[in-house]
Amino acid sequence: MRLPLQIRLNRMPRPTGSLTLSRDQRRIAHMAASLLLEYPGAGFATRMPLIESSVAGLPGPIAADFRRFLDHARARSSTALEQEYVATFDLKRKCCLYLSYYAAGDTRRRGTALVTFLEAYRAAGWEFDADELPDFLPAVLEFSARSDSPIAAELIAAHREGLEVLRAALDRIDSPYAAVVTAVCRSLPEIDEATRERYLSLVNEGPPTETVGLTFIGNLAPYSPTGVTRTHEEVRP
Fold it and tell me: Has the keyword Electron transport been applied to this entry (predicted)?
């Protein structure tokens, strides 16, 4: 559905500036974001002190982004955090944590996009073995944090406009999760003009809306490299 012309955007909303991070700093930022963007269920509160100490050494603006969210989470009850997560990511179309949704929406193209994520993991020597779809942002961020393959960076770069749409949508509703996604965007290279145009188009138009079934994908969800068990305690590289 198109927005009324008078409120359509012709520039990117509040873009973030990219910061230069070392590989280890990027690993820490992406693993911390992966953990914080998962459903805040059992163990979430006990992980927060480890995440907080890990991100403290990151460049100032990124550390501040994480601290802003952690301060918010610490002040909320576990039930309130869970309700906030569901209200933010499950009920708002432009606050979707599945990266391929922004470009493909609920169309036939999304099935192909999901297979591309699986192939990217395998090309880097990983097997996706989880109850989530392979484009789930926390899973992609964990892949970036734990993999030494350049494929991980390429996978995020290929969906940068979706990340920026997510960031802008969270910022627009004043969600505390905007700070976490902002930290991720700061950790990535500056976006080029072509990406800016795709981002602006997605902000204005939203994802495609042709609805189709994706049952042939099966139940996928957190992946781990062959023989490695995924743990929530691994924040530092």
Answer: no
**Within 13 A of 125's CA, how many CA atoms are on the CB side?**
8
**In angstroms, rounded to a whole number, what is the distance separating the alpha carbons of residues 52 and 31?**
12
Rounded to two decimals, what is the model's pTM? 0.77
User: pLDDT digits over 23-75, tens only?
Assistant: 999 999 999 999 999 999 989 999 999 999 999 999 999 999 999 999 999 99
Task: State both tokens at 236.
Answer: 């530092």
**CATH no. of 19-225:** 1.10.3480
Cα(185)–Cα(37) distance, rounded to whole angstroms? 14
Distance CA 110, CA 105 (A): 7
Q: How far apart, in whole angstroms, are the C-alpha atoms of residue 223 and residue 237? A: 17
